[in-house]
Design goal:
The protein is α/β, with parallel strands linked by helices. It has two domains: 151 residues, Aspartate Aminotransferase, domain 1, CATH 3.90.1150.10; 277 residues, Aspartate Aminotransferase, domain 2, CATH 3.40.640. The chain contains 16 helices and 15 strands. The strands form three sheets. Strands 4-10-9-8-7-5-6 form a seven-stranded mixed beta sheet, sandwiched between helices. The chain has a four-stranded mixed beta sheet with strand order 1-2-3-13. Strand 2 and strand 3 form a beta hairpin. Helix 8 runs parallel beside helix 9. The mean pLDDT is 94. The structure holds 4'-deoxy-4'-aminopyridoxal-5'-phosphate. The site of 4'-deoxy-4'-aminopyridoxal-5'-phosphate has 15 residues, from helix 4. This is Aminotransferase class III-fold pyridoxal phosphate-dependent enzyme. Pfam families: Aminotran_3. GO terms for molecular function: transaminase activity.
């Protein structure tokens, strides 16, 4: 076992900026510092081990110690460690990967644009829509509709189309080109007495109203996850996608499918549209699982009809004005090729399909627990929503933060879960097996007991 050098108490922290963290408390309270990985576990600087039950941010699909991927990277580093894919030049591994990807994606004759993160891939999807519409003679058609309470990345564009008003305000974002509709979260967003079918019809009508109000000639794209993972894991009710898609088709609006989390195995297939939606989007983005996150790597996938529109804009002098020095990085490409090979050699998608019912059973076993308001599970992920009222006055005080409180208790027990408001989510590495799920749910139960006791004592 490698020895772990323990850093001095706050060494390196004073000058570190960490996102989604309290910048002030970071200066006085040391964050969790991970030193190494072992399968689905991470080990901190003091040697304490944690199961990463949400695969970091749903991204560590092969866990934290897959040496096959390290080997693939090392081999490529020795052969050709970098090269920019642009200006009519590229590398052989990028060509090989493009062939492998297009054969596995649900869009026939799709075109692949490479970049380094889900954030970038989503930003470019909006940019490509604008470009295509400029050269299709409808430049005004550039606004984007997305859904409240969603997350699509961290650039100015992505932060704007993520539906969090507080975030729009704190970064003074110009929101002129963005509109929002309700998340298809039936449990939390339904009206009193509303059936699922009525809820779906109301959301489709809302989409149509938003389009009409903005002017259909100004709306270029609808941007959404196929299953809302970023809003706390809320599977859309049956009929939601056909109803929404019918509205989009009526107004010539491109459907952009954010598969940054759902893509590459999370739903037991290469993408969620394969088995969940039953129809094809116009653009699609993949990141996270595509390289198992062993390298910053992502793609924007463009359907052939959209690409044909983009072809009209090819400038004679400069060609297509878009590239990035590190886009299509050869080491990243070599890792993604190995990810695809390993997924097939080891039948990872089949394994995920076997584990989905195991995970769902473990999640729904919490139904009826005195402290639980709702349970949700879809693909290889599940959420339990805590009922703050069940924890007495202390629970009420922590309403909206109960997920975070449970995470803190679980971490003491060696389990990292993903908090979201009053829910916690699990979505382990794809490689997790039945024994791992048993351990995850046992630790979660211990964490819950600790939280109940702590709140009762307070
Ligand atoms: N889209 C979704 C749905 C995401 O969850 C995320 C990241 N959590 C992103 C996009 C952004 O991806 P990245 O963090 O790789 O930039």
């Amino acid at each position: 076992m490698a020895t772990v050098e323990v850093a001095r108490p706050n060494e390196g922290v004073d000058n570190l900026m960490l996102g989604y963290s309290d910048l002030r408390s970071l200066q006085t309270r040391r964050p969790l510092v991970i030193a190494r990985g072992d399968g689905i576990r991470v080990i901190d600087e003091n040697g304490k081990s944690y199961i990463e039950s949400c695969a970091s941010f749903f991204n560590a699909s092969f866990g934290y110690s897959e040496h096959e991927l390290a080997e693939a990277a090392y081999e490529q580093f020795k052969l050709m460690p970098l090269y920019s894919s642009a200006s009519h030049r590229t590398v052989d591994v990028v060509l090989r990967l493009t062939e492998m990807l297009t054969a596995r994606l649900p869009l026939p004759d799709a075109h692949i644009s490479y970049c380094c993160s889900g954030t970038e891939a989503n930003d470019y999807a909006v940019k490509f829509m604008r470009y295509r519409n400029v050269y299709e003679g409808k430049a005004a058609k550039r606004k984007v509709i997305s859904r409240q309470n969603s997350y699509h990345g961290s650039t100015v564009v992505d932060s704007s189309l993520g539906g969090a008003k507080g975030l729009h305000d704190s970064f003074a974002l110009d929101m002129a080109d963005y509109r929002f509709v309700t998340q298809p979260d039936y449990f939390n967003n339904r009206l009193e007495g509303e059936s699922e079918a009525e809820f779906v019809a109301r959301l489709a009508k809302e989409l149509e109203d938003v389009i009409q109000e903005a002017g259909p000639e100004t709306i270029g794209m609808f941007f959404a996850e196929p299953i809302c993972f970023s809003s706390g894991l809320t599977p859309p009710p049956d009929g939601y996608w056909p109803a929404m898609k019918a509205v989009l088709d009526r107004y010539d609006i491109l459907h952009m499918d954010d598969e940054v989390i759902t893509g590459f195995g999370r739903t037991g297939d290469w993408t969620a549209v394969d088995n969940t939606l039953g129809f094809k989007p116009d653009l699609m983005t993949l990141a996270k699982g595509i390289s198992a996150s062993y390298f910053p790597f992502a793609v924007t996938v463009i359907s052939d009809p959209v690409y044909q529109g983009m072809l009209k804009g090819n400038d004679i002098q400069h060609g297509f004005h878009h590239a990035g020095t590190l886009h299509g990085h050869p080491v990243g490409a070599a890792i993604v090729i190995r990810v695809i090979e390993l997924m097939e050699e080891r039948k990872v998608l089949e394994h995920v399909r076997e584990m989905i019912p195991v995970l769902h059973k473990g999640i729904h076993a919490w139904r009826g627990h005195e402290a639980i308001a709702d349970t949700r599970a879809v693909g290889l992920a599940g959420a339990i929503q805590l009922d703050p009222a069940a924890f007495g006055p202390k629970g009420e005080e922590n309403r909206g933060q109960m997920g975070q409180r449970l995470l803190e208790c679980c971490m003491e027990r060696g389990l990292i879960v993903r908090p979201r408001a009053d829910s916690v989510i699990i979505g382990p590495p794809l490689i997790a097996g039945a024994a791992d799920y048993e351990e995850i749910f046992a630790l979660l139960a211990l964490g819950m007991k600790d939280l109940q006791e702590e709140m009762r004592r307070a």
